[in-house]
Amino acid sequence: MAGRLVHREATKLIRARGEEHAPLSQTVKFFGGWTRSKEAPTLSGNVTPRRIRARFNERRIRKIWKYTEETLAHWMEKAVAEYGRPPQVAEYDWWRQRELALAKPKGDVTLHIPSPQPFRKRWRTWPEALLALGYDPEAIDSRLERGVNTTAGERDVVRRAPRGR
Predict the structure, then answer these.
(1) Spatial contact of 129 and 119, defined as CB atoms under 8 Å apart
(2) Cβ atoms within 10 Å of 110's Cβ, excluding its own
(3) CA R_g for the chain
(4) Rounded-to-integer distance, Cα 10 and Cα 147, Å
(5) 3-12, 70-79, 119-128 — which is least confidently predicted?
(6) Is-contact 135 109, C-beta < 8 A?
């Protein structure tokens, strides 16, 4: 709401000078979001519009339409290393959100960690995905046991069966 008030005041000043001004919705749509539309005027004094657009496009996180099996296995291994066992869906998703949040302040906005959905789409269920990635059925079942202590000092080594591909 505050952004609209600032925009309205700026619009009044610009129109009082007799200049044309685009509506807020057009400005936000052109720059691809409110944050970018606020940042663009600060860059416009010494940077060309083409460079501004290129700068914004570099930041854009593009959706990965299909992850390779190797990529899925890589990220699952990282999650398993965190928990010391194959994670449940909610645990994996929590871990993923945390990793993305930790990468953002470092400036890594291009980090792509697959959500649980690609695992489920490829292998239909979470346990089937874990089996297909080579985790031992006993290790998969252990993720469902109540009262298992998985603190950093008491983690067991997760057994992973060799992949036959």
Answers:
(1) yes
(2) 11
(3) 24
(4) 60
(5) 3-12
(6) no
C-alpha of 163 from chain center: 28
Question: CA-CA distance, 120 to 92, in Å (whole number)?
Answer: 13
Q: Read off the pLDDT band of 163 (50, 70, 90).
A: low
CA dist 127 and 135 (Å) reads: 9
What DSSP character marks residue 136? -
Mean pLDDT of 149-154: 45
Angstrom distance (rounded) from CA 25 to CA 34: 9
Tell me which residue of 134, 21, 127 sits closest to 70, measured CA to CA: 134
Above 60 in pLDDT, residue 149?
no
